[in-house]
Amino acid sequence: MSPTHESFGRRAFLAAAAMTAAAGAIPVTTGVAAAAAKDPDQLFEQGAFDEAARGYRRLLGEEPENAHAAAQLGYIALLGNRFGAAERYLSTAIKLDPADVAARQRLAECYVRQDKLAAAVPLLEQTGRPRDAAYATLYRHVTGTPWQLHGARSTRVPFVTMEPLPAVKAEVNGREKTFYLDTYATLDLAQEVAEEAGLRSLATVSGVASNSPVTIHLGILESFRIGGIEVRNLPVQWIDARRPPLPDGSQPAGVLGTTLFYHFLTTMDYAGQALLLRGRSAASPAGSGRIPLWLAGDHYPCTLGSLNGYGPGIVTLDTGGLGHGLDTTVEYAERAGLAVDYDHPVDRNGVAFYPVTADRMSLGRAVGRNVKGFASAKTIPGQPGPGQADMFGFEIIANFTHEFFKPFTLTFDYTAMRVSITGGGRPRP
């Protein structure tokens, strides 16, 4: 299968994972706000979160009953994993406007990120949404401490392959398996692996994989071991769907993603071909390669990036796109002056995708040159990058993915909320 069709097949598969996306996002109704904009809603849509927060604090000071300002302050705090502020402002927003479903979902997510699952249950039960009810059922069944970490304080696990995506060995209830790594995933198992491990489906949600409806099962895994670290009592999901095969033609056991990664200081060392997990209290690499990190939804990392000098603007960090390094739309490609190959469109579900080449795309000082990717003729809701603007409530100019990251080493610090990017370094435990 060609890289082009692999990329699109993988995107269709990801639609299932998208069912666990950010809940209750605020629709974007305008484009990028002018640099001098003072309206906090416009600033938020622009991705100028600090400036927007100042505006919302001013509004809340002038109007203590302004539920929208409180909710937005809570959302901005949640994007930055500032849990105390997120809890305070979102709780205030709910008191001021009990009908604010988005605030309830975000407060629940705030507790989930801290592994306070019991606190999330009543909030999820009150939204009236089937997906939230399913996760409330899952979390209600978690007894004891979730995500218990045992064993080594740090571990380095070599990649068994770099293509079509980085993959590592890990154990599910004592049985060794091979998993892809994908920052745009949760912790997702193949159905046969879940059945072999004896997992019980506690709840289900609906999704789509390869353009077909699927059922996503939710359950609790007793033990997951990766390198010298064992994680016990962790919520997981699984579906009955085929994934892109490993180089030997076999199916992976699933995908390891951000809901696992944010429990550690996680380094994806493409240059050294290894995954490094350290305790969250470990120091992330110092230096000039540190850029902001925000976490949207339950597992979608975002930062600032540029295309051919256009930007910086918000971009998503999705390491799981096969055979390319960039996703965007024709609108953003033209703004950035990318070379768009209009003569060779690829049709997917009636939407044209055009090959593009970015002469230069950058995350801070990490620069990729002549990076190949795709630009969709229109914005596709849920598509990584610009297609998630409505979901998250702020403008996104692009999605940076697999081929871009291959020369680099990325460290995701979900405590300091920074991404460190270096070229070719190999951080040690």
From TrEMBL:
Entry keyword set: TPR repeat
TPR repeats: 67-100
InterPro entries for the chain: Peptidase_aspartic_dom_sf (IPR021109), TAT_signal (IPR006311), TPR-like_helical_dom_sf (IPR011990), TPR_rpt (IPR019734)
Name of protein: Uncharacterized protein
